[in-house]
Amino acid sequence: KKQESMRHYMVFSDSLQARLHKETRVENGLHRALLNDEFELHYQPIVSLDDYSIHGVEALIRWRLPDGNLLMPDDFIEEANRVGLIGDLGLWVLESACKQLRQWLDHGIQLSMSINVSPRHLRQAGFEEIVKEVVQKYQIPAGCLMLELTEEVFVDSGIASLYALTEIRKAGVGIAIDDFGTGYSSMRYLKSLPIDRIKIDRCFVSAHSDDSLSDPMITQAIVFLAEGLGLDLVAEGVETSSQALELAKQGCHKGQGYLFSKPQPQDVIFEMLKQKKLL
Ligand code: C2E
Ligand code: CA
Ligand code: CA
Ligand code: CA
């Protein structure tokens, strides 16, 4: 008996050590990566479900390691948060996305750019001032930039965050609630929040088992909610044409997902943007 628990302990401790080792690597690496400019943004189109024209893109961060490997945000965002680098990373994203948006606008491409903002970054003092400065610097027109935030921001961030969001909207930057339906949003909050868009979480849209909507009751309810509150609506995780069709029938007219395109590097998305239409 004792031997067995000893063995379990060693297995546990081995994997813990491996994890700790990986975490320190990631932490040291994050500092280096910021200095060496190892991050890149990939872009996924946000598409009209009526005619498949491209309405905008969402910028999604990736980390290009010196050995050429690509790390996905789930591999390092949490760590960046833990070691206090999420603000620096967020600034890099904001700046890079706006710089890119300016280039595309200069090419005569009309589109909106969505970026993800972590709750901790939003809560940093002066966040709204920095957003305003970057918008000024790149002359981003009103309605062309949108910040995506998860529901937790609206539930427990308090008055300072609400003030920041209100200021940001005054500068012509939109606010979206990301992963809607998975957090703790209460209807009461929703009505008074300074927001422009809801993004239906992909768990209600696609399931691996089926081509149709994974939760049509929920998506329909969110459509009614968005209509009632006068909010723009985007469905995430659209993977099949029957999901796109069902959503449009329910009254959701924008979608994002592998059906249209995976997130793409800048040169690939530029070609798609010039075509304007997908499929
Ligand atoms: P998110 O904001 O919900 O982004 C959507 C994620 O779903 C992306 O994963 C995207 O590649 C994936 N996706 C898109 N369409 C489909 C689909 O049809 N099916 C499926 N199964 N997945 C789809 P990604 O790029 O790995 O990003 C994961 C999360 O990391 C994001 O979720 C976001 O929360 C976070 N993230 C990404 N970029 C940033 C960033 O620049 N800053 C911060 N703070 N967080 C970021
Ligand atoms: Ca997002
Ligand atoms: Ca999402
Ligand atoms: Ca998510």
From TrEMBL:
Residues annotated as domain EAL: 23-277
Protein name according to UniProt: Diguanylate cyclase (GGDEF) domain
Annotated source species: Marinomonas fungiae
Full-protein interval shown: 289 to 567 of 570
